Amino acid sequence: KLAPVTVVIVMLADPTHAEPWISGLERVSEIALGGAVGLVCALLVLPDKALGYLFPHVADALEASADLLEAGVAGLLDGGLDPARMDVLNQKVRVTLRAADVRAGEARRERVGPFNAAPDPGPIVRGGRRLWHSVIILLRGADRPLPPAVADQVRPALSAASQALAQGVRGIASALRGGGPPPDLAATDAAVAALQAELERLGSSGALAGEGPSLMPLYAAAAGCAYIHDNLIELAARLAEARKDAA
After folding, report:
1. Distance separating alpha carbons of residues 99 and 55, to the nearest angstrom
2. Global pTM exceeds 0.70
3. C-alpha span between 147 and 131 (Å, rounded)
């Protein structure tokens, strides 16, 4: 119904009544000029980069992973792991990483051409997913608390390692969200090394002898902590590279 109105507007828009090909050329040039202005504004004046949306998604996933880590260690040492809360946190990580994948595809398309040298976000997203998988390793036996005698012996080292790792994960998340550099992970390095040393000491002294299958969750937690530590180091390196490339 509005088609005749459009035709009238087009016909009345050129009071000079120029030749049709001249009118068409003017129309095309106006569209090209508008497109060029829009492109320049999008790239230089008011850029709306996909990275600005991607990094907060990864930060949300990391923060939920830190919550999972702390809840898993608490379940090992004290029991009382809440499966419903674990499901909610895991679902949050899953959804936010899926959203980050979508934004990563958009960011890669933005990198096409000489006008945009944004860093590749792929390593950041993959690092966040690997860290979540490492937390899942720790959670595998967290629904069964350790024997009280074992929990009392490993509590100081395991609690310190989990707290340092969670702090490091949240530090990376804060850097992703706030645009700052990655945090110093020296405290995390020391706490994870202390946990490994304590487990070796307890094992060599025979303090853990006779516990058998009940120790499997403990060693899974120790392996998970080591993997999370490696993931943190990798994420910090990739984030530092991304900040350098974006500078």
Report:
1. 10
2. yes
3. 27
**In terms of Cα–Cα distance, which of 63, 62, 80 is closest to 71?**
80
Which H helix or E strand runs over 245?
helix 216-246
H or E, element range at 184: none
The 10 Å Cβ neighbour count of residue 115 is: 12
Range(s) of the domain holding residue 74: 49-245
Looking at residue 119, which CATH number applies to its domain? 1.20.58
Summarised one tens digit per residue, pLDDT across range 124-175 is: 899 999 999 999 999 887 888 888 888 899 999 999 999 999 999 999 999 9
CB atoms closer than 10 angstroms to residue 20: 8
Amino acid present at 214: S
Alpha helices in 140-185 (DSSP H): 148-178
Give me the number of domains the chain comprises.
2
- b/e map of 188-214 (b: 16 or more CB within 10 Å)? beebbebbeebbeebeeeeebeeeeeb
Assess whether 155 and 125 both reside in one domain: yes
Residue 14 to residue 31: CA distance in whole angstroms: 15
| CA–CA gap between residue 86 and residue 100 (Å, rounded) | 21
